[in-house]
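Entry:
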Amino acid sequence: MSTDIEIARTAKIQPVAKIAEKLGIAPDDLNFYGKYKAKIPLKYINETKIPSSNLILVSAISPTPAGEGKTTTSVGLTEGLNRIGKKAMVVLREPSLGPVFGMKGGAAGGGYSQVIPMEDINLHFTGDFSAVEKAHNLLAALIDNNIQNKKYSLNLDPRTIVFKRVMDMNDRALRDNVIGLGGTGNGVPRESGFDITAASEIMAILCLSKNLMHLKEKIGNIFIGFTYDKTPVYARDLKAQGAMAILLKDAIMPNLVQTMEGNPAIIHGGPFANIAQGTNTMIATKMGLSLSDWVVTEAGFGFDLGGEKFLDIKCKYADLAPSAVVLVATIRALKYHGGIAVADLKTPHPGAVEKGLENLEKHIENARQFGLTPIIALNHFVWDSDEEINVVRQKCADLGVRFAVCDHWAEGGKGAEALAKLVVDAVENSPSAFQPLYDWDWPVPIKIETIARKIYGASGVEFGPKANADLKKIEKLGLTNLPICIAKTQYSFTDDPTKVGVSTDDFYLTIREIEIAAGAGFLVPIAGDMMRMPGLPAVPAAEGMDIDEDGVIVGLS
């Protein structure tokens, strides 16, 4: 069987200028990054056109080591929609190097449902992650420089600083450290640490900005800490926002590439959904809706994380509503949630599929709490038995949800035509009645408990000592009306990653602390032992990668 990278190389890639022509974009307006990648200026966003276009959100059941194929399905569905005569494009997030070289691999789709050039997209692409990292770390440097230089000091108390540094690689050794050691010329010693770039507040701001001036304003609102006399300090107090915006002047423009079947694709922004909001930029989504009639986008991890944040945070900030929701599942993943070990997932086991359907059913229930009835896309593998597939088909019929078996990995758009037709039917005959889960003006604990109870199925929420102190700080800063972006394990509805499927026991979500992302415009309650700097697995994917003297890469997936 060919690998994803081998399949990607078989595609007849077109110059990106030809892809832009299909969208009515003049070549002179493109900012080219070689022949196959380009940035689109923001002037192509048409707010008048957006309401007449259809936004399709692709989410999934709770992730498993077996994988679900959410991005692959998003690309395949886009190909399928174009094959049945719809003007469609896919809008996705950019991959982070940490997962690419760690455990998850790339994020350009798979098989014959990929965005290309696959190697470029999965590596440095157009430099957006680097720009976010540099802008973020510029602010970090300015903070420590201000503490060091007493003449111009804001009197910032180092013990209160909450802004860490970032880098785009999984590196657990950087989570907590002491900086400024080595003498008075090296700064003031203090505790600090690193987050991964995907969790950077600058990344979140990029993804929730309307334009460059809005981005600059939001950067200025980043909360840093307090002075010794308890006055809050923001990035604007350091006059940092202008220089940081300069570093992001190109990164704010969405990136145009193509699918393997030559359809337009926009890839822009890359926050994770387990530690951030998990969706591409507001600008990219609006650009897609301005240039196409159908836009397929995905939100990271399961519907309880990326899906909920897409609907409760992004949609409200962007004044958008999805026309339909697709939930991706696989027989393998359902068997995993049904108690089957990873090594045995290719062995037919209809009973385990039946048990694992509890997880899918909970995600369906969650989508309906937003007024949305999802379409179920079963990402098909050759070892799936007919009996197992029929178990899922019957359950979907019992629940009154549309269901399609998809072969887009092996067949590209042809394998997703059935799904595409169901999506069109849902949009035309079952209009969305989208409504957010909570009101932003509710008290912060109530908003957190609403997500925990309704989406995760928790009996309640337990706030730790630091979380309670953070609640008081949020009240003092006047930020209680911000939405909630919970950082939580993606593998479970609980805060315990080992509890897969759906917990039958009463459980309480434990909130350890609440980070303040005043610039991005949300609060980040951190559940359980969740870290905002991931670690590499015991055997990182990097160990299987290589490059030859001709520059041919192997092992990238």
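The radius of gyration is 23 Å.
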